[in-house]
Amino acid sequence: MQDLKGRVAVVTGGASGIGAAIVEHFVQQGAAVAIADRDIDLAESLVKKLQADAAAKVIALRMDVTIGQEVEAMVAQVEHAFGGPDILVTSAGIGLRKDFLETTFDEWNRVLAVNLTGAFLCGQAAARRMVKRGYGRIVNISSGAGVRGIPGRAAYAASKAGLISLTQVMAAELGSHGVTVNAITPGPIDTPLTQEMHTGAIRAAYVGRIPIGRYGSTREVAAAAAFLASEQASYITADTLQVDGGMAATNYIINI
Ligand code: NAD
């Protein structure tokens, strides 16, 4: 079944991890997909891999989500290449594990700029076109860290909580224009970001608190994103979908 056939999607941060799995899944579901990422080499190698299937429609565009002109140019290029976009997924993000009292002003600003302002800029550029066409699906990749007071995550958690709030306001304003806006809050997922940031002790502590008893896969987040991006989710907006193996129901807080 190709639920996204004929749709045009932009995936920010689509070169790696969760974003890359979303790109791959959306291409399999029949969408034309633009990978918008600051790491163009990684994005282009994913394009090459996916183009082994001659039917795949996928391009790579280098951009930084924190720079308004680059965001606008990227969305204009997608419109020129494929039309749309009908779907935006904001997966570009950076992590930071640092106590509130230790977090520098620059670190705070950088994390907020990529994780929150980046989604604002991309959402605005895409939604302006969606509103004109009366159709759109926006999926913001937030985090379980955005709904709990986890020690050591001041900037990251604030950026992800802000993204949930932005999702709700966008949904409230855009719903009457045929545009739905939802967030996904993944729990711990195996990606390059967590492989770098999660020590063995952190991994063990998380797994002990996840009812399903393991880290999630990027493919499991991609399946949730594809659902929210599809026709089937037509009456779901302003929602936050947990893809966390049940972790939010137990206790997110590990103090490591
Ligand atoms: P990742 O590091 O594997 O991928 C992030 C991608 O974003 C990279 O390709 C990177 O080049 C790109 N990127 C970073 N800054 C950018 C910028 N300024 N402009 C354009 N592209 C930029 O990370 P991931 O683990 O796949 O995480 C993806 C998203 O999911 C992030 O927003 C992250 O906060 C969120 N998340 C991840 C987990 C997890 O366990 N991995 C859990 C919850 C939420």
Automatic annotation (TrEMBL):
<dbReference type="InterPro" id="IPR057326">
    <property type="entry name" value="KR_dom"/>
</dbReference>
<comment type="similarity">
    <text>Belongs to the short-chain dehydrogenases/reductases (SDR) family.</text>
</comment>
<protein>
    <submittedName>
        <fullName>Glucose 1-dehydrogenase</fullName>
    </submittedName>
</protein>
<dbReference type="Pfam" id="PF13561">
    <property type="entry name" value="adh_short_C2"/>
</dbReference>
<feature type="domain" description="Ketoreductase">
    <location>
        <begin position="7"/>
        <end position="187"/>
    </location>
</feature>
<dbReference type="InterPro" id="IPR036291">
    <property type="entry name" value="NAD(P)-bd_dom_sf"/>
</dbReference>
<dbReference type="GO" id="GO:0032787">
    <property type="term" value="P:monocarboxylic acid metabolic process"/>
</dbReference>
<dbReference type="InterPro" id="IPR050259">
    <property type="entry name" value="SDR"/>
</dbReference>
<dbReference type="InterPro" id="IPR002347">
    <property type="entry name" value="SDR_fam"/>
</dbReference>
<dbReference type="InterPro" id="IPR020904">
    <property type="entry name" value="Sc_DH/Rdtase_CS"/>
</dbReference>
